[in-house]
Design brief:
The protein has 242 residues and is an all-alpha fold. 64% of the residues lie in helices and 0% in strands. The protein is built from 10 helices and no strands. The longest helix is centred in the middle third of the chain and has 27 residues. InterPro entries: HTH_Sigma70_ECF-like, RNA_pol_sigma-70-like, RNA_pol_sigma-70_dom, RNA_pol_sigma_r2, WH-like_DNA-bd_sf. This is Sigma-70 family RNA polymerase sigma factor.
Length: 242
């Protein structure tokens, strides 16, 4: 991606969703939780299925319950960025919730809750069945979290390119970066497919990579509890140069 120092040229950003979800303002709290749930619902679901051996219906209910309780401001209030990474804190909260729900035999679905997102649990279950057995559910949680951040950044890039009339830029990015290695197009193939020069391919990819990196960092910022944590996660987990 880019080689310039992290943060150079970037405007000041609003507080992350992790901060916003603890706001006294219900609108900000709900919007922040939507952002968090996009990145964390599938890691939570798969973690509950694999770590706690819960059947699909129960894992789905636990995932929904997690975000319902978070909306009521009972989940994230005790989070301290100085004590743990936010993704570690989330996983600990899930563990406590599973134990609590088992103890209370909470089987009845909650009624009247705000629907934050349409969660495709069927797709998540299909992915679990396709994936090779993994001995470490925590590794699955972390890998799924990274995947969700990348997907969010890709959709943000797609939106920016469509809004700015740069669909060719996204198509070039898609052909080069969003395919398996065996199917990845060369610069020459992209140029032929899009009817542009190889130099234009390079320019369009440079733009798309820059916007993707910015979107990825923004998605990461929303799902971490401090600027330092965000920078650490960017370097260690995502491998971005700072």
């Amino acid at each position: 991606m880019m080689n310039k120092p992290f943060g150079a040229g970037f405007p000041k950003t609003p507080p992350s969703a992790v901060i916003g979800v603890r706001s006294p303002d219900p609108v900000q709290r709900t919007q922040s939780l939507k952002i968090i749930s996009r990145s964390y619902w599938k890691p939570i679901y798969k973690y509950v299925r694999l770590r706690w051996r819960k059947p699909p219906a129960e894992a789905e209910e636990i995932t929904q319950e997690f975000f319902a309780r978070a909306l009521e401001r009972t989940t994230f209030q005790s989070y301290d960025p100085g004590q743990a990474r936010f993704r570690t804190f989330v996983r600990m909260c899930v563990d406590r919730l599973v134990v609590d729900m088992d103890r209370q035999h909470l089987a009845k679905k909650r009624g009247g809750e705000v629907t934050l997102l349409r969660l495709d649990f069927g797709l998540a279950e299909e992915e679990i069945e396709r994936e090779a057995p993994v001995a470490d559910p925590e590794a699955v949680f972390d890998a799924e979290w990274v995947k969700s951040l990348v997907e969010t950044a890709v959709e943000s890039l797609r939106t920016v390119c469509e809004r700015e009339g740069r669909k060719v830029h996204f198509r070039a990015f898609e052909l080069f970066h969003l395919r398996d290695d065996a199917e990845r197009s060369t610069y020459e193939t992209i140029a032929s497919t899009l009817g542009i020069s190889i130099g234009d391919v390079n320019n369009r990819l440079s733009y798309a990579r820059r916007e993707f990196r910015a979107a990825l960092l923004e998605a990461l910022r929303d799902c971490t509890g401090s600027e330092q944590e965000m920078q650490d996660e960017a370097r260690i987990v995502l491998g971005l140069s700072l």
